[in-house]
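Predict both folds.
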Amino acid sequence: MSPGMNIHRTLPPLLLALGLSGCATTPRQTESTTRVERPSTPAPAAQVTVRDEGNKSTSDEALAALAAAPIYFTLDSASLTPEAQDSLERLALALRQRPQARVTVSGHTCELGTTEYNLALGQRRADIVRTHLVRLGVEPQRIQVLSYGEEHPADAHALEKNRRAEFSVRSAE
């Protein structure tokens, strides 16, 4: 075989390989590889709701102790991370110290999946948070859960921020 024949056999795969590597772009980050990072700053007021339905003697500091940042979940999961468990321990302590306080836990998901699936996943997320708070000594009748599924996204451009459980705390003293 002549040297020219070897070039015809090796040149097309070589050009293809070079062409593909030359056209490579940064891979698009998929949901399964998205790293969920907990924000280091407190949640904005829109994510945490604290209402005082009792007398006005309740201090801002006491209500602030009841405020909790959202709990974040990984894709297709209702498992609590160690950070989430720590946050729930602080919330449970504040709730145990204020027996009149009530909390609603709302479960949320990103837009991936069907509406039915997302509502069920949001419910599982809210339920696991409720179960954990009960294990930490908060009376079950003080915790209400609901699921919004994908209906109330926190950030349309950051799906990992939508996979969360949020808290609304009411205080009636």
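Second protein follows, with its predicted structure tokens after the sequence.
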Amino acid sequence: MTRHRPRGAGTTVGVTALALLLTACAADTATDTAPTPEASSTTVVADTAPATTAPALSPEAQQRLDTELIAAAWADDVPAARKLIARGADVNATDDTVQSAYLIATSEGHTELLDLTLVSGADVTGLDSYDGTGLIRAAERGHADIIGRLIRHGVDIDHVNNLGWTGLHEALIFTDQAGRPARGDSTDFMDSVRVIVAAGGDLTIPAQQDGATPLELARRHGLTSQASLIEQAVAADRAHAPGRDADAELLQAAASGDPDAAALALRRGADIETRDAQGQTPLVVSTRNNHPRVAALLLYLGADPDAQDNIQDSAFLYAGAEGLDEILTMTLAHGADVTSTNRFGGTALIPAGEGGYASTAQILVDAEVPVNHVNDLGWTALHEAIIYGDGTGGHLETIRILLAGGADPTLPDGDGTSPRDLAAGRGQGQVVALLEEAL
């Protein structure tokens, strides 16, 4: 069955940072401000924006702000949405199509906007015109990251809408629409099923229209990977598998790169932050072995991107050091601390400079990792890009990126040698020219 929700004219930030930004915006509001909406009674595993006291808006002014906020949500204009919320716009206010800024964020896959609405009192029990939760809307579109964020905020994972479907049903039924506007690709839809399975979603609820179970739906739609995972999960639920170590299974799945095994271990109660003998969490293990699908599952369900092992590597720091851009980008989208440092006192950007990982350096510069941070060896990322490079290829491009991002071309290393002299001493003529141009 195909259905179409009314659309508007318009088409990754940590929650703590969002709360601070909202506070800052509130200080700059006009006189017709209102209290921020009351937080949902659902338990939220996150910081929330501080409540403010302000005069109530007139009904007309409130409606105007709410309408503008919904338009900003369709356009994914987070700065505008932030200002409107600070002025009193309600993230739960719905239009005549029963869609709110919060619900729009869930269906359109706008993660930063979703985080903003969640810290601004979004009601995760709120329903759309199909009596569907935000999770169901996200599952229809294959937005696995959104699904995970909502689960972490207490949404009902097994809610049934007025079409008789849960989020899991929709993640299976609408897979054939992968890749369409505002929808994820086939990998995203598979990830959506994994997140729901891992989080303990009920695999026995039949679709009310025809009584098909999730497993039957997966088979009907030719989804062999989804069917295999669901079949394994159903069998495991029945067996209860006494005596098995779910934590060990999760660590093994992270090492081998088996996201289905990771989902099953989490479903069995594995601690997402368990540690191995080296102090590595499953996320660090999956990152060290460059298994992005396992890393994605873990991050979607709340794994800490900054948890450091016995040698002070975190998923974020290791991904930056090794040029693992896919995982690096995900850790940043899930609030990685860009100022965190490794055992050498260096940020993620410094070893990226050492490796000459230009694309990685660009990601980190864009994320505002301190570009002139000096590690315990007395080196910045610019120094390491010169010292460990040959002045060509990825190292040369990395140096360009660092200089464009604000690297100080005059800052000497711990021995007092300038970047220019370091490059000249190594015969890196193109680097010397770049540095002289930047002076």
